[in-house]
């Protein structure tokens, strides 16, 4: 046996003798001490904690990745649906559509908010009736400008434009549109049932959660898509005659015929006319608006809304709804008093009294408990309102949205650079960079005395990058900037044509318009101003006379009406930005459609 094995055996033998002697002398058996046990337990707990932490990290990573996958999937589906709708547009993006052509329509409504001014919840008016974000607890993503010294964790910088509306008629090249409507049963009677059509009136819009949290995390938005089937073969429908309840019950594009006292399903020709489109029956006068903020209210005051209910309702509590006016006397929003939303088993009607026009206020409902018939008003909107009651969630496309922005391409909109960043009109920071001609701060010395605004603009922005950008409609309104001269005038930079009569009712609008306003026998532009008495006649643009004694018979200037922007729409871009709250991830996608 090798020497080292012999050594080991001798040592083991000696150890065994010592243990035996010790045991014999003291009468004790060898065992672990309490200290040794505590040390072992501590080591075991440390190892277990490390394992638990490892699994927690793995689980968290899996959860984050799963959330990102789900958000990407949802956003991808929304993008796919939007792209399909735009590709199936039945109407050319060119104004002055003839109803007899049966092309339908395209309409874009540019809301009052933008990326540079995204919401009343971040306007700094912490005492305003519309409320403000809780900057210390809000989950809304922040920018790098947040002042953490005030206890704020966000400044709401992740929010963007959200209140634009896209409405158009669509033809499906694949599966037909399906929705609640009426069908003919075996006995030849028309009854409620699932209706199909290859054509539909489609409305995309977005609603923001109010500051009181009644609809969820304040400031987050939800994108909705309402699909109304174009089914002219369905006979007129009498009940319900309330527009809110009709469109809650049926997915049928229809207009209310006062003579028949019935809902008449639309054709594409009918929808060329603004008065026949979704929810226009509540606006009985030209120009038949969908989004009406209302005007003529006293500045910086509020007016309470009346909530009308059907006397047969089993729930009858009143809701306290207040309309808030802005400095222009328009209704900028609404608030619902806490715990005063009323309880309803049918959709209430909201009437805002006073003012030159009545805003189209509509309730956004919230379920109360488990009772399927018990609902309250959680929020009020100027535009379309979501489906509710037994159809809750059917029209939801995206939840937890930060931005929903519809932009039109303007080939002469300037692109400028500032600190290496290219900015287009409407981008965040645009207003801070492009100053008005009367603002001389930070400018060089006057260039020439002959210049009406003699200040060099070299210090305002670094340079002109080029022209052509997707912009908000009316991006030049209320700006007053002095910009480089474009090769041609921008087409969407100013106010709408006053003959559209939309400026006093709504934010900016693009509409393909209808020629029938010039031959409908109605006087849309009655004007008694001296020198314009010729406008008191009806349809003077098509009466065969040279009413204004210039440019010949029935020239364009004689028309009673005009599209808000009498130009073709080159292209559209819709931006969607989604937010996953648990993982704090943001995803953005866009759809561009050339016409």
Textual characterization of the structure:
With 595 residues, the chain is of the alpha+beta class. It has a domain at 302-381. 16% of the residues lie in helices and 27% in strands. It contains five helices and 21 strands. The chain has helices at 3-26, 34-87, 243-249, 268-272, 430-433; strands spanning 106-110, 165-171, 177-184, 190-197, 199-208, 221-229, 254-257, 262-265, 302-304, 306-308, 317-325, 331-343, 349-351, 362-367, 375-381, 396-418, 421-423, 463-471, 508-511, 571-580, 585-594. The strands form six sheets. Strands 1, 2, 5, 6, 16, 17, 18, 19, 20 and 21 form a ten-stranded antiparallel β-sheet that branches. Residues 440-459 and 477-481 have low confidence and may be disordered. InterPro entries: Pilin-like. Residues 537-567 are annotated as: Disordered. Residues 537-547 have a biased composition (Polar residues).
